[in-house]
Amino acid sequence: MPGDAPGVARAAAMLQRGGLVAFATETVYGLGANALDDAAVVGIFAAKGRPRFNPLIVHVPDFAQAARLADFPDIARELAAAFWPGPLTLVAPRAENCPLSLLVSAGLDSVALRAPSLPLAQALLRKTGFPIAAPSANISGRLSATTAADVAQSFGASVELVLDGGACPIGIESTVLGFQGSDVVLLRPGAITRAELEPITGALLEPEGSQIAGPGMLASHYAPRANLRLDATEAHDGEALLALGLTAQSNATAMANLSETGDLREAAANLFSMLRRLDASGASTIAVMPIPDTGLGEAINDRLRRAAAPRETAQ
Ligand code: TXA
Ligand code: MG
């Protein structure tokens, strides 16, 4: 469904009736449901095959809406002023009498909130008037979707409506932050980089065991069908190659270059679609060249490490 005004109106009506709608955001496509409606939220877990203990991000148009749903510390207000709307998710205790379905919190007393910046996502949120719970629109544990076609390929008929906003401009998920007093915890590296955050937050803390809130933080996630071999300098026989920067002549069975100039923004935008393409080539292993761990490289490497992790732990 095109992401024009009639498309947004139809999507809003479907959400209002308790249905599921996939929609573009600036990061990746989300699989949305009315966050006030338990039955609708259950539908997300069912469609994704997502374990019930993995909480969902709730999308709102702005901080004013978010502040009605959660009790944010002052530092969260500053972060929202700097980065919202945009690819930053803030986890805070549910407000007293918070109307959100308890299922979005998956048994925790906190909720993750984000105001997406893509005009299509903003239009949908303003049209519905209610918050939209939306994890990434992929089967649980598999590659995220950055185009409407990727969503359709993952879900087939089980998602009736995909609101098409074209290719997601950022291509990697939001950064997820939690709070501990006045300290800020990096729960998931993402589109807003450590270098952008730390001038405001001070040194980010690593999550502790008790803050491991779901498979998004477990070892295996974002996994293609093929195995991944990281820090490869070249492809071995029979392997596909995911390159970054200039590459020598390669005997890879299939090859994609995240960014020929080594630009990490371009690399993030290409990451999931290129992994999908190489996976579809049928190679049993995708060799991945080293990605610098700076800027967006931290989030890219996080996704690649989880995609490469042993699958026994996958949910
Ligand atoms: O960019 C994004 O964040 C995309 C778009 C659609 O907004 N959404 C997304 O959702 O990536 P999902 O469900 O794939 O990842 C949400 C992450 C998970 O790692 C989850 O465990 C964490 O946020 N999370 C959600 N609620 C939480 C909570 N209350 N406490 C701690 N972590 C939470
Ligand atoms: Mg996800």
Strand proportion: 15-25%
**Spatial arrangement of strands, main beta sheet:** 7-1-2-6-3-5-4-8-9
Mean pLDDT level: 94
The rough form would be described as globular
DSSP summary, beta strand count: 13
| Class of secondary structure makeup | alpha/beta
Order of helices and strands: HEEHEHHEEHEHEEEHEEEHEH
Question: Residue ranges: pLDDT <50 for 5 or more in a row?
Answer: none
Give the quaternary arrangement of the chains. single chain
**How many individual helices?**
9
The Cα radius of gyration reads: 19 Å
Terminal CA distance reads 31 Å
Helix content: 25-40%
Q: TL;DR?
A:
The chain is an alpha/beta fold. It contains 9 helices and 13 strands. The structure holds threonylcarbamoyladenylate and magnesium ion (MG).
